[in-house]
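Field log, afternoon session.

UNIT: design team B
ACTIVITY: writing a sequence onto a fixed backbone
BACKBONE:
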């Protein structure tokens, strides 16, 4: 397709963002309910459930770069990405229903195959959809505008299913199988509908045969050589490590959050119900702020500063609590202060994530300048690979934090020794602090600025005019 010049039409931007709802629904299901469902409802051993989900996660991380590369090399009259967005969600819907309504008794092979099938189908929906950001526009700021819409929709989809689960499907019976069956059906309908609607909404702009490019390297070995060449670009390597540090911190936070809510802050039921709304409000805040911040400071500086501010807002209440400067656990002032801190912490953390994701798109032209290839899908997949691996690392670290703190199994809120709770809270805070500083130190080495990106676009345009058949500009 020909990139949009100037501001991306609102309809196109919203349609692209809509495609990430399926990813948010998948993440919510896998991270919140799947272990509970297969372990407590279907009676599978928790260790086998965890092992199946870990294997599926590894498979998911490995398939993403392949999906990205395949979509980069696809050439149809509907473009490179849309064929996948029209077909993959149909499989995704069916696999999602089967995951929550397994045929016959639940078993390790059934769960493993279902989880791999869902993750593979999501990859064929999300990777091409995310790759369209760099394909739709080459504008430095418009890419962030599209990325923030993707974040808003992904969070919105996940939190919508969370609210429906707690308020409609499982309001009084978290272990009712029928509730999970309905959860799967409604989730499948939303996934299929939003991805297809996203594809249809973008068709006018991106549903065209791509420009003919020089053939890539032949064979499977050639494909993997191109993937390796793209993902080893210095700017992308920096981003990979920055994303890894950021998502590791997020993985620790998500996996330890229930311990913090119940044992540290002592959330009452009402607080647990309000918390998803608070998080979505903070995502809306990030949606509104990231554009002006980036225009003023640039993506690199926005990501670095936002990561630090988010860390400070999150660590401060835990630190004050440690030194006896916070209100009593479970009191209204304590919960109110924690909600305020969480709002700003999550808002700035999401801003950092949006900036990092938008920076991935800017590597496409830097790579094109060197290789002559546009590899939007490969880079989008590489970022997903880093994020998924880091999520697993974060969960793994949480296990060590719980062990180090001496957190007992089957513990009851209010019945655990205060020194154990304090040790858990402060070791977690130390991890968040270290990882935020690591993000800043890494991202400062990212070489692409607004000025450099715009100069590169001009150089590529000049090369294209000089030789319309050229596949890229090689310095």
């Amino acid at each position: 397709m020909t990139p949009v010049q100037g501001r991306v039409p609102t309809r196109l931007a919203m349609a692209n963002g809509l495609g990430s709802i399926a990813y948010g629904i998948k993440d919510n299901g896998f991270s919140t309910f799947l272990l509970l469902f297969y372990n407590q409802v279907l009676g599978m051993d928790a260790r086998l459930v965890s092992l199946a989900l870990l294997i599926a996660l590894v498979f998911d991380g490995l398939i993403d770069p392949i999906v990205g590369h395949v979509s980069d090399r696809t050439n149809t009259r509907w473009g490179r990405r849309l064929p996948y967005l029209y077909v993959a969600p149909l499989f995704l819907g069916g696999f999602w229903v089967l995951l929550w309504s397994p045929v016959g008794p639940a078993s390790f092979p059934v769960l493993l195959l279902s989880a791999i099938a869902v993750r593979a189908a999501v990859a064929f929906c999300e990777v091409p959809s995310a790759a369209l950001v760099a394909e739709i526009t080459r504008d430095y700021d418009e890419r962030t505008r599209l990325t923030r819409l993707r974040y808003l929709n992904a969070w919105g989809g996940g939190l919508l299913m969370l609210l429906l689960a707690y308020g409609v499907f499982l309001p009084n019976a978290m272990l009712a199988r029928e509730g999970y069956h309905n959860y799967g059906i409604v989730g499948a309908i939303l996934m299929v509908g939003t991805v297809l609607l996203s594809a249809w909404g973008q068709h006018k702009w991106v549903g065209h045969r791509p420009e003919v490019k020089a053939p890539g390297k032949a064979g499977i070995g050639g494909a993997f050589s191109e993937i390796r060449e793209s993902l080893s670009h210095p700017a992308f390597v920096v981003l990979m490590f920055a994303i890894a540090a950021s998502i590791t911190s997020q993985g620790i936070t998500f996996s330890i959050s229930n311990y913090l809510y119940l044992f540290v802050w002592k959330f009452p039921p009402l607080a647990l119900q309000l918390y998803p709304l608070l998080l979505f409000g903070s995502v809306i805040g990030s949606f509104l702020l990231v554009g002006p911040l980036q225009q003023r400071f640039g993506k690199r500086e926005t990501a670095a500063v936002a990561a630090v501010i988010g860390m400070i807002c999150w660590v401060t209440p835990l630190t004050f609590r440690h030194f006896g400067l916070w209100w009593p656990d479970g009191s209204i002032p304590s919960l109110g202060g924690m909600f305020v801190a969480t709002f700003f912490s999550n808002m700035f953390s999401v801003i950092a994530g949006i900036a990092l994701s938008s920076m991935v798109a800017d590597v496409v032209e830097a790579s094109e300048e060197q290789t002559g290839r546009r590899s939007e899908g490969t880079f989008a997949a590489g970022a997903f690979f880093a994020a998924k691996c880091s999520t697993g690392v974060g969960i793994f670290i949480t296990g060590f934090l719980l062990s180090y703190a001496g957190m007992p199994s089957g513990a009851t809120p209010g019945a655990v020794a205060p020194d154990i709770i304090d040790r858990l809270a402060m070791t977690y805070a130390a991890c968040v602090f270290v990882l935020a500083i690591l993000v800043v130190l890494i991202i400062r080495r990212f070489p692409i600025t607004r000025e450099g990106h715009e100069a590169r676009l001009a150089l590529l345009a000049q090369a294209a005019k000089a030789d319309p058949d050229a596949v890229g500009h090689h310095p």
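LOG NOTE: The CA atoms of residues 36 and 175 lie 8 Å apart.
NEXT ACTIVITY: expression trials, pending approval
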